[in-house]
Amino acid sequence: MKFRLKNLLLATLFTFICFSVSAHPIKMTTGKLEIDSETMSCKLTINFFADDFESALQSEFPQPSFNYDNPQPEMIETIKNYVSGEFLLSVDDVEVKLEMLKVKMIEENVCQVTFSGDLKTVRLFETVTIKNTLLFDAFNKQSNILHLIFNGDKITILQFYPAVPVRKERLQ
């Protein structure tokens, strides 16, 4: 009995160590928001750890495994709905509707989602307000970093985490 329990304990410990080593400890997204007052448009690019992103989306919107080489309509719709609920953008208090352009794997375990937004109703381009709660519900140590670029010039790097999910910045 003791021998069996000892083997079971060792097997459990070995399994735990194997799974712990393969998981990455950093829970983060990185991104870039480019706002252009001349073209009256913006482009948002977000990089996710694919395993974290899929895990969070599958728990909220169960569906077949993601295929980044040939994204199915259900996958695209799931990503659009999720991001539009967790990433909100307004310029000069005018809410910006983001349209998904593409999703792709850019390297092993990193997927990239790109959106565009129309800013034709914005007049002054003085401030931007961003709510970025991507993956906050899935991981308690999640943080999101966003490079903010206005008319080709980097304004700042913003960090979002559960205690500070909304940031407002001056553009000029």
If you had to describe this structure to a student in words, what would you say it looks like?
With 172 residues, the chain is an alpha+beta fold. The protein has one domain (26-170). The protein is 27% helix and 41% strand. It has three helices and ten strands, in the order H-E-E-H-H-E-E-E-E-E-E-E-E. Strands 5-6-2-1-8-9 form a six-stranded mixed sheet. A four-stranded antiparallel sheet has the order 4-3-7-10. Strand 5 and strand 6 (110-118) form a beta hairpin. Residues 5-22 have low confidence and may be disordered.
Domains, number: 1
Side by side, the strands of the main sheet go 5-6-2-1-8-9
Order of helices and strands: HEEHHEEEEEEEE
Largest sheet: 6 strands, mixed
Residue stretches low in confidence (pLDDT < 50, at least 5 long) are 5-22
Distance between the termini: 73 Å
| Overall spatial form | globular
Entry summary:
It is globular and about 45 Å long. A 6-stranded mixed β-sheet has the order 5-6-2-1-8-9.
Which short descriptors sum up this protein?
single chain; 27% helix; alpha+beta; six-stranded mixed β-sheet; 172 residues; four-stranded antiparallel β-sheet; 41% strand
